[in-house]
Design a protein that fits this description.
By secondary structure, the chain is mainly α. The chain contains 13 helices and 2 strands, in the order H-H-H-H-H-E-H-E-H-H-H-H-H-H-H. A two-stranded antiparallel ribbon has the order 1-2.
Length: 328
Amino acid sequence: MASEEVTTVRARPEPIKAVPVRHPGRWILVAVLAVLAAMFVHVLVTNKAFNWSFMVDKMFRPPIIEGLLRGTVLMTVLAMLIGVVLGVLVAIMRLSDNPILRGVGWLYTWFFRAVPRLVLLAVFGNIGILWSRIEFGVPFDTQLGQLFGIDNLQLRLFGFSSRDIITGFMAGLLGLALSEAAYMAEIVRAGIQSVDGGQTEAAQALGMSRGQLLRRVVLPQAMRVIIPPTGNETIAMLKDTSLLLYVPVTVELFFQLDAVGKRTFQIFPMYVAACLWYLFLTSILLVGQHYLERHFGKGYGPTAQARDRLRTMTAQQGGGGAGGGGAQ
């Protein structure tokens, strides 16, 4: 009996009719946002209170530009430099094995984080009330002289008038920098503690001193954690320079814009000009922060993880091939 060949023909499936998921809520939200944006543009164009021609004419005058450069930009740079350096020192004190240094570091951060910057600026702006003259020497010299029967004993090396040194600019710089140092101390401390402790032990086993350990091992790795919040603090410092209006610091952007507005009875246009200037400066800092984060983030993140997985797979494949050849 001849075997019969049975040919089975599989029916071709019909193409899938994919129906995209509908999101009506998204389109409703887009429509609401479009209406709000149109209303905002309408206010900008039609409301005469902005007085755009007056604003543009005044916001680029020499006193405004001088306040921008000498008051806002220079104050931000100096306050952040002092704050970062002092913050690193305070962070090292907080992490020290010495209980006195730890206590002083904690006390510093507690005080300057608790007091608002506006209050600090007001205090430093009136520091001349506390000391009309600042002198350096032996403390309680007059009292010690009276104790031993010596009248008007003065064991002071040098001094200066507080009005000559602590100007409005210096008072504002001290208030902002000392406050910033407290926040930077916590940022640096968190960054240092994020580094694996095994690397510290390995560096100590190699004979590195504590200073070498911080400079060569800990801080370079901690920068990945330190940079993002430091960028945010720099932007916050740029905006907080507007508080110098209450010291007062006359060579400052917001002070100059406020003065022009009050002198010309055009307050609102000058406040809008201040918003535009701060938006411009903050945008520049945001771009710089992006590139800094990308630089110090090399070797981390999804790209680095994918690269590490690829290296592991390559090593495993190479090892498997070598092992197979040896077995044969």
